[in-house]
Structure formats: structure tokens, C-alpha cells
Write a structure and sequence with these properties.
Blueprint: H1 2-25, H2 30-40, H3 44-50, H4 54-58, H5 64-73, H6 81-97, E1 103-104, H7 105-116, H8 120-133, E2 137-142, E3 145-150, H9 151-168, H10 179-190, H11 196-206, H12 221-234
Antiparallel strand pairs: 1-3, 2-3
Helix pairs in contact: 1-2, 6-7, 6-8, 7-8, 11-12
Length: 237
């Protein structure tokens, strides 16, 4: 029994060693190699050989650029379909880092072409292919424009919109409030006179189930929220 355990342990360590040597030979540092092995186990070499861009999707701390460098060391061409399809998601991720939830197809194609340094026609084909697969990206209409989203972000956007619609429907959770009386009362409580824009905002918030208050530092958002909450507390909400 002990001999069989030793043999099994030796075989396991030998396999791990071969995988680590393979990873190091293709420019993967020890920390990343360990994460790759923990993710794929003994399938690590097979996964990397077949589709190194899976690393960017599956392994924490490995992005497209790292996966792309590994793919190049493995001999993958810049025009390889797997690289182009992965590049579409990479371009969208780059756009989200700049605050976008999606990009029109033409803008996505331009950005992906710039990032991947290949012909425009190849990028357009890759976008169409990725949309047809429906695994990583999805298209939707924004106004008159067809836009492409990362699939997870599109789902999050829809969920947020649906929840906002649900919250906005129905009656207010508080009874009618006479703001002509409430505003002077709350100003006396806080010792702060509300500006005309704050009074207007307070009227909007009081009669809405959902409201968004925006503005830069110092415009009075905190004072507005404080006044709103004091009025609701006084109403027993």
C-alpha cells in the first residue's frame, strides 16, 4: 500500500513538473504558472495548446495581452480566428475601462483593429462570428444603432433596468407631503436655507418612487438628502 502511494505521488509530481517546465518555456512566471495549474490541473498543456486565450477568461491575473504573448510563443499567427475572436472581447473590455457598457459595431471594429493590428475585414468577420456563437458577446439596439456588449454586462444592464422599472411602479410609500410647510420646517431644523435648485430637487424626490440626484462636490447633495430624510422621519416613514 505504501509503495503504491509513493509511486502515485511520484507520478503526480512528475506530471506537475512537466507542466511547469512547459509553462516556463513559454514565458509564464512561477506565480501565474501555479494559478494556471490550479485552474486546469493536468489539462493545462492541452488547454494552452488548443486555445491559450482561455487563460484570459478563466485565470485571475491573466489578461488578453499576457495570453496573446503566450499564444505568439506557441506559434499562433496574428490572424488566427481564435485570436481575433478573443480580441473582440478584449476590445469591449478596454471600452468598459473607459466607462462604456457597449460599442456600436463600427466603433468596436475600429478599436479591435487598432488593438490587434490586423485588416478591418478580418475584424468584421470575427465580430460576426462571435455574435453568432453568442458565448462572450451579444448585440442589442441603442436608439438607431446596433451595439455590441459583453454578455455578462448586457445581462447586468437589463437586470438593473428591470429592477428600476419595478421599483418605479405603484404608489409612493409615504402619504401626501405639503412641501410649502415642510421646507420651512426642515430649514429651521437644519439651520440651512435650501437654494432654489435644492427646493426643486426636493419636490421631485418627494413625488417620485425612484430619483437620481447628481452634481459635483459642493452643490448640496448631502444637505438635500438630509432634508429629505428628516421630512420622512417626521412623517413616521
Amino acid at each position: 500500500w505504501r509503495a503504491s502511494k509513493i509511486v502515485a505521488g511520484w507520478s503526480e509530481q512528475k506530471a506537475v513538473r512537466e507542466i511547469m517546465i512547459f509553462l516556463h518555456a513559454h514565458g509564464v512566471g512561477t506565480a501565474r504558472a501555479v494559478r494556471i495549474f490550479k485552474t486546469y490541473g493536468h489539462e493545462a498543456i492541452k488547454v494552452m495548446t488548443e486555445d491559450p486565450y482561455r487563460l484570459a477568461r478563466d485565470v485571475r491575473g491573466i489578461g488578453f495581452r499576457t495570453a496573446d504573448a503566450i499564444a505568439a510563443k506557441l506559434g499562433m499567427e496574428k490572424t488566427a480566428p481564435k485570436r481575433l475572436r478573443a480580441g473582440v472581447s478584449f476590445a469591449l473590455q478596454t471600452a468598459t475601462d473607459e466607462g462604456h457598457c457597449a460599442l456600436p459595431v463600427r466603433m468596436l471594429a475600429h478599436l479591435a483593429q487598432k488593438l490587434l493590428e490586423v485588416e478591418a475585414g478580418l475584424i468584421e468577420s470575427a465580430i460576426a462570428d462571435e455574435l453568432q456563437r453568442g458565448e462572450e458577446v451579444i448585440s442589442d439596439r441603442i436608439g438607431e444603432e446596433t451595439c455590441v456588449f459583453l454578455k455578462g454586462l448586457h445581462a447586468a444592464e437589463r437586470a438593473i433596468a428591470e429592477r428600476l422599472i419595478a421599483r418605479a411602479e405603484g404608489d409612493l410609500p409615504w402619504s401626501a407631503i405639503d412641501l410649502d410647510k415642510a421646507i420651512p420646517w426642515v430649514e429651521a431644523k437644519t439651520g440651512k436655507a435650501l437654494a432654489a435648485s435644492q427646493r426643486e430637487a426636493l419636490r421631485l424626490v418627494i413625488r417620485s418612487k425612484v430619483a437620481v440626484v447628481t452634481g459635483g462636490p459642493g452643490v448640496g447633495k448631502t444637505t438635500l438628502l438630509d432634508s429629505f430624510l428628516r421630512i420622512l422621519v417626521a412623517k413616521g416613514v
